[in-house]
# Entry
Amino acid sequence: MDNQLSVYQYPTLTVLIDDSRSFLSSLAFQLNPQLACKAFHDTDAAIKWLHHTHWHSIKNENEPIRVGYDKLTESFERCCASIDLDLIYRIVMNRHRFDMPAVLVIDYAMPQMNGVEFCLAVQDLPCKKILLTGQADEKIAIDAFNRKLIDRFIKKNDPNALNHLEAEIVKLQKEFFRSQTSTLKDLLSRHSYSFLTDPTLGALVSQLCSFYSFEEYYLFPNPAGILFFDIQGKSTLMVIETKASLISQLEIAQDQGAPPELLTALREFRLVPFFCDTGGVYREEVGHNWLSYCLPPQICRGRKDYYWALFDLPPHYLQGPVYSYADFLRDHAAGLTGYPPGY
# Structure
């Protein structure tokens, strides 16, 4: 499951719901500080906040996929979909992205309503849910899991409960984005982005995230690849080519009168180019400076061979400075994050 790529993924907010203020404070303190949390001891307040937050995020979301209908027949049965690929990686310019409540951790035994009743009240939201149970509540939790009201349950008295909880939060954050981007992924993988469904490439992306401490990633359209950001907001582009796409690069370079050395290297699959100043492909103005736009490839042998390399992303691809996860964690600790007043 962890080898499945999402179209994009970034850190999100974990919401803790328990009637005990002392337990909430203790849990929030013990959890990994890089798991940003918001706590509620009042279930009604939590439900209201979750619905308002979800509504606000939907209202302000600039969706990369848009569905229309056939204007000639004015038939809603003949739908068409268009995708603005640039909007995917430009999600990083939304400073409220980390405020998204993706995972809820809910205590079962609460006086206002129990944890299962709480989950019923928010079952229309896409949040993943973890139920904290006592020893006597296991059958109730299993029933809630089978009814798909919760995604996991953890016993409070388990000596490894904290480690287990942290691990499940991380897994469910990933599952949240897989489900949120599944339709978009299905459309994209049928065309130029088949690597999105290749588990070998997915495993490589996970390894790169771990090795370089990347916190978020987004599909990048041209050249095809994955755009990573670390906790400080530094960007790294993984350009992903195949033999077919490198041959296409070769044909364009030939038409543009590229130097013979570049043509030979492309023909022999000995480099991965990122012509970042000329729309992603070779142009005459690159001239004999072409080598500064290229790196030797590494090869990921999945369903097909992927030739990849890591490049720094030039600033002109973004629309200003990135609000990083480090910025968010600092502001969150100071109580400066969240949606505008009223949400």
Observations:
- The CA atoms of residues 91 and 124 lie 24 Å apart.
- The first helix runs from residue 21 to 30.
- The chain is about 35% helix and 25% strand.
- Residues 8-61+97-184 form a domain with the Rossmann fold fold (CATH 3.40.50.2300).
